[in-house]
Amino acid sequence: MSVISDNTDGVGSRPQVPAADHTLRILRHLARRPAPVAASALARDLGIPRSTIYHLLATLEEHGFVVHLPQERRWGLGTSAFELAGGYARQEPLARLGRPLLATLVDRLGESAHLAVMSGRDVLYIVEERAARRPALVTEVGVRLPAHLTATGRAMLAALPASQVRALYPDAAAFTERTGHGPTRPSELRSILQAVRSSGYASEDGEVTAAFRSVGVPVQDASGWPVAAAAVTWSAERELDPERAVAALRETATELQRRLRR
Known about the structure:
- The chain is α+β, with helices and mostly antiparallel strands.
- It folds into two domains: 18-77, Winged helix-like DNA-binding domain superfamily/Winged helix DNA-binding domain (Arc Repressor Mutant, subunit A), CATH 1.10.10; 83-260, GAF domain (Beta-Lactamase).
- It is 43% helix and 19% strand.
- The strands form two sheets. Strands 5-4-3-8-7-6 form a six-stranded antiparallel sheet.
- A hairpin with a 4-residue loop joins strand 1 and strand 2 (74-77).
- Helix 1 packs across helix 3 (50-62) and helix 2 (39-46) packs across helix 3.
- The chain is elongated.
- Residues 80-262 form the IclR-ED domain.
- Keywords: DNA-binding, Transcription, Transcription regulation.
- InterPro entries: ArsR-like_HTH, GAF-like_dom_sf, HTH_MetabolicPath_Reg, Tscrpt_reg_IclR_C, Tscrpt_reg_IclR_N, WH-like_DNA-bd_sf, WH_DNA-bd_sf.
- Residues 17-79 form the HTH iclR-type domain.
- It holds the Pfam family HTH_IclR.
């Protein structure tokens, strides 16, 4: 298969790179689908020969951009694709728009807040607003923590398709611990995420740092994809009404979503 075509349509036209074009179209198509897709459907919908589809999918799988679900005989986005999405989201405008909103949230609740994005099976913190006279937390900008243990991670995982969660957490080896608490196998995580979907928010209690609690909600794009999550963390010794914190977080997330979609 030819990689680069020298054909041009006139001054200013660009050389065509079929392999790159097909690869990007595959990733874009998978990103727009609500569930994993069969290779035959990709070939049909994109007008790409099946042999080419299978070769490109194998290469994308090798680099983590897609995952194959053998029981379903379908393909979905992999963790490397999530990292690319997170890399985009970490740049402006998400952090720029989110920082003042989190500052207002901190003033309102008197507790520290943060904004995070998914990066593989981790969350990566991109904004932290610390409340006055509150202790430093582990959620500093640039820190990564296991998504399945954090309120921000659980909020985003609950908003992902179940197939993507299965791809991220296929077995017990995918789970790590920090304080000896938290899910250690896929079935336990599924139960937690179901509770998050039912309540509309995520929580964790001492699973990231002993004696600290967090609640979090997702920040979603127009298609419902979780581009980030906002959370509030406080010492278990302090009295903060979780329902009040969740209500404030939802208002913050809704406003951030509105500003992102302008």
